[in-house]
Amino acid sequence: MEHITRTKVSDLLQSKDFGKEVLIKGWVRTRRGNKQVSFIAVNDGSVIHNIQVVAEVEKFNEELLRQVTTGSCIAVNGILVESPAQGQPVEIQAKEIALYGTADPETYPLQKKGHSLEFLREIAHLRPRTNTFGAILRIRHAMAFGIHKYFNDHGFYYLHTPVITGSDAEGAGALFRVSTLDAQNPPLKEDGTIDYSQDFFGKETKLTVSGQLEAELGALALSQVYTFSPTFRAENSNTPRHLAEFWMIEPEMAFCDINDNMDLAEDMLKFLMIYALEKCHEDLLFLQKMYDNELIERLEFVINNKFVRATYTEAVEILMKSGQSFEFPVNWGIDLQAEHEKYLVEKHFKKPVILTDYPKEIKAFYMKQNDDGKTVRAMDVLFPKIGEVIGGSQREENYKRLLQRTQEMHMPEKDIWWYLETRKFGTAPHSGFGLGFERLILFVTGMANIRDVIPFPRTPKNAEF
Ligand code: 4AD
Ligand code: MG
Q1: For ligand 1, which residues put their CB under 6 angstroms from it?
Q2: Whose CA, among 72, 78, 204, 392, lies 20 to 30 Å from 300?
Q3: pLDDT single digits (tens) 226-253
Q4: In which domain, by residue range, is 20 found?
Q5: Same-domain check for residues 152 and 29
Q6: What is the CATH number of the domain that holds 48?
Q7: Ligand 1 atom closest to Cα of 212?
Q8: Helices (H), strands (E): how many in the chain?
Q9: How many CB atoms lie within 10 A of CB 214?
Q10: How does pLDDT run across 413-440, given as a tens digit for each residue?
Q11: By the 8 A CB rule, do 398 and 209 touch?
Q12: What is the rounded CA–CA span in Å between residue 172 and residue 391?
């Protein structure tokens, strides 16, 4: 059988080489038929569609055919023919079938179709074999590739920032500690606290919540950089939009103010929507049919609308005048909740929205302070259905003002001296933002839960796979 090379199903479904001998390998989705002929639908993950293999029963070992069941893995050598059946251009007349791996119908968890997404989360080791996760994983790949393409084409350098860090970039306090100390019996200082000077790095270290601070160091040398890294947050928020481990893309640009920053965010998101429609059309059609009949319309909505730009203060006024009764009451100073963002995007503006100039108390220490003494040059991009997809800001480039803010927020200078030094030596106006990769994938796939757009979700009490 191995005398010819394997062809991917995606290529064969496009092929017009009728009469040609081909070899395919993949997983059986279904087998039906009768005493004379078996129809075997095979998927190899290269495309949402299966290829149909037609096997005349008398030509094959009965025992072998019996084991070709849903979930088994096979190789088929045969002749590519035009398919007489509706809805498929080609099929394979099987000459030889080899069985790589059986899947006992009694115990194979995906034997039947139509499992709930909740159930599939419990079998994350097998769910890539479903049509839904095949589509999502291909879209995820295309979006990652599109992001690198976008930045490369725009002259950004990909900067690799550390996963293990000694600083808390967002000041959110939701950190996973990294330590090799004996958890049962850690060395203690005289005051009874843990002596991290004896730990692996000689200090207390954590998994990063954001690569931004290091990205700023890169931008203040290379002008335009971006990161694309896993980030970790130990916040105990069990919501459909939060993961404890998620991927973030963080561009950072010198000589760039908040307006340039908003322009970049809008242009990049529109590019990614166009890229998805172009590269993932069949997977999007499948997800639209199965889960979300407005999916493609929503992607086009982002492409075709100029994003509304408004300040936080204006947004609060709109919400207070809205006459809506929100679960979290609105007043100036609150951190906007999902319900507020949803109202602004879906009911009021009916466009993607970028809110700017938030109260400094609810934002991170590094944001550029406005002259009003109350607000900072923050920007959040809000999308329909998912809310915040991007958070960013212009950065405080003034050494004295930044130092003062770190002191007000009780950030020890010994942890952050290196960041402050960039403002001492050749500081420059600069800005950047963070795009939550899984939020983006949520939006592009139309899925409702962030656990369903990452292969192996990490959420509170869940790290099985
Ligand atoms: O708004 P955030 O916290 O901003 C930062 O971390 C900045 N350092 C970014 C920057 O300016 N370079 O996070 C950025 C984005 C959010 O808008 C959201 O899309 C996503 O990251 N995000 C999460 N996604 C999944 N699960 C979580 N727990 C997330 N927290 C934030
Ligand atoms: Mg944010």
Answers
A1: 169-170, 210, 212, 233, 242-243, 246, 248, 250, 388-393, 432-434, 436, 438-439
A2: 392
A3: 999 999 999 888 899 999 999 999 999 9
A4: 9-101
A5: no
A6: 2.40.50.140
A7: 12
A8: 13, 16
A9: 24
A10: 988 999 999 999 999 999 999 999 999 9
A11: no
A12: 14
